[in-house]
Design goal:
- The protein has helices at residues 11-35, 43-54, 63-90, 98-115, 117-128, 143-154, 156-159, 163-191, 198-227, 236-244, 255-280, and strands at residues 3-6, 282-285.
- By secondary structure, the protein is mainly α.
């Protein structure tokens, strides 16, 4: 019999918060690029514009909402996935097949996307606020203030604006990140070339980040436009039609910065998660 450690249900949320603190400026730039009506700026140009206009700390606008989102969205999806996977592991002689990991990722991601929608919408608004004229800025003090004001001024329905899109996107990105990470790590370890170390975690998480970016980018663009809208879209279908008028590549607007943001975020999340699992995980006998 051998001893190994498994994740506690809340480790994913903590790891995602740590990653978000490092990658938040990239997330902010991605939102700015996706919401500009014409492709006027690239990533570096947008970064310099934000810094010149509002200062370096403007790159961290909405950080409280980003952390709040991770402690709702990521905590839920990782919690569901890890808990269910640990249960499946206990009832079998080996790791579950890939299709089961995909199903777990889809269920966890969809649920997490729904739970995290209010914080996600406030996150997008706070990040995009610096682009608005001073008279049109919402000026939320922090994430809780933003959610309270949306609830009070626009109603509960607006607080969950884009929930369908966010949940669908959450399912896809969780399949790309968690399910693909688990499967890639399993295949790498099966070769016997690498052991369960940080190099293996890095390699598997880079591949997982690429898969997640490819799967979720079109939905991510639509979700961002819906959450940042001020009534110009009548729904997901209308938003998709209006976006399509800009050409098929409009669905992949900001793809490079999205990959530049999502892949490092995925790498950092899983490196932090593996370290939490190694040092603080629950011990099980196999």
């Amino acid at each position: 019999m051998a001893e190994r450690r498994v994740s506690r249900w809340y480790f994913g949320g903590l790891a995602s918060c740590g990653a978000a603190c490092c990658t938040h400026p990239l997330d902010l730039l991605k939102v700015h690029l996706q919401t500009q009506q014409e492709a006027k700026m690239r990533m570096m140009g947008m970064a310099m514009h934000v810094i010149r206009t509002d200062g370096f700390l403007a790159l961290y606008n909405g950080l409280s909402a980003s952390l709040c989102r991770q402690m709702t969205y990521s905590l839920t999806r990782f919690g569901i996935y890890e808990t269910a996977k640990n249960h499946l592991d206990q009832g079998s002689k080996g790791p579950p097949p890939f299709y089961q990991k995909v199903l777990l990722g889809a269920v966890g991601g969809f649920t997490g996307g729904l739970v995290g929608t209010p914080a996600d919408m406030v996150n997008v608004r706070m990040q995009n606020d610096v682009k608005q004229p001073p008279a049109q800025r919402r000026n939320y003090s922090h994430a809780l203030d933003g959610m309270y004001r949306v609830l009070r001024e626009e109603g509960l329905k607006k607080l969950f604006s884009g929930a369908t899109m966010a949940s669908s996107r959450g399912a896809l990105v969780t399949i790309g990140q968690i399910s693909c990470y688990d499967q890639t790590k399993q295949l790498v370890l099966a070769t016997g070339i690498l052991s369960d170390n940080i190099l293996t975690h890095f390699l598997a998480s880079v591949i997982a980040g690429g898969c997640a970016t490819f799967l979720c980018q079109p939905l991510d663009v639509l979700k961002t436009r819906l959450m940042n809208s001020q009534g110009e879209y009548q729904g997901v279908t209308h938003c998709a039609i209006e976006t399509a008028k800009l050409g098929p590549l409009a669905f992949y607007k900001g793809f490079v910065p999205a990959a530049i943001r999502l892949i490092p975020h995925t790498v950092l999340t899983f490196i932090f998660l593996e370290q939490l699992r190694k040092h603080f995980g629950m011990k099980v006998i196999t």
